[in-house]
Queue: 3 jobs
Job 1
Amino acid sequence: MKQETLEEAADNYAEKWEEITGLCWEDSFPQYVNRIDFIAGAKWQQERSYSEEEVEDIAWSAWYESQFQKPENRDEEGFIKWFKQFKKK
């Protein structure tokens, strides 16, 4: 299944704005509309992002595979130290 692009999502949102928000365009204040649209965009992005747990699982798999030839380096402590240095704060 093909994932919707940002442009496709924007077009769909614009076409179905009143249905999605439950508001009437003519009766809405621009600042209120901007707020609703900003929140909707953030939610759309969040739905397409990996959770911290998913990122950690992917990173752990990569770490484990890269250390496969060196069993003495396959320690969880080393991974945690490595992972934390790249983690956003």
Job 2
Amino acid sequence: MPLTDSQRAHLERRLREERDRVRAIVNEIVDQRSRATERDESGDLSAVPFHPADLGSDRQDTDVDLSNATRASAELAEIEAALERLYADPDSYGRDEASGAEIPFERLDVIPWARTRI
């Protein structure tokens, strides 16, 4: 059964909510990464960490932040693409891109940018 107008409106709201949520995540990561380092904030003139393990911890934090930013950016692109599909051809939104079969509303409610039934 095709999506009703009220279901499409609900999914549009969900997509907009998810877009705002993911944008906030990306913005937070960018803000955190662009702040001054602890060394700058403390006024420490030495670039040598207090302990060698600090280098590993700092690198791991950077890697996690970059990984999260990459994942969130990809998710944001999927959300934007879903909104474009919804606006460009509302009747085709919610259909599996490979088979053309309808994606269940329950799945779209959880992942409104879903491109497939599974």
Job 3
Amino acid sequence: MPIEYRIDHSRRLVLARGTAAVTDADIFGYQREVWSRPDVAGYDELVDMRETKSIAFVSASRLRELAAVSAAIDPAERPSKLAVVAPQDLAFGLGRTY
């Protein structure tokens, strides 16, 4: 899987890492797989895109769709934080837009 993750329950943190060519389907899959789990509700997230070789995102509307999916999954009563490490321009721009 181009996005690997681990969950640090003691720190209430999900650590994700892009490892190859990442597509919007990979990102949606990661989002649904990890954030549909009740045991990570309200956890913070750190996404490391330094090893990502490329990102194939279809359109801005898909990015908006991803943001809507994410917002629908996030519990309002447990606010969390997101940080993205993205030295490449595209990854940085997508992370900032998201």
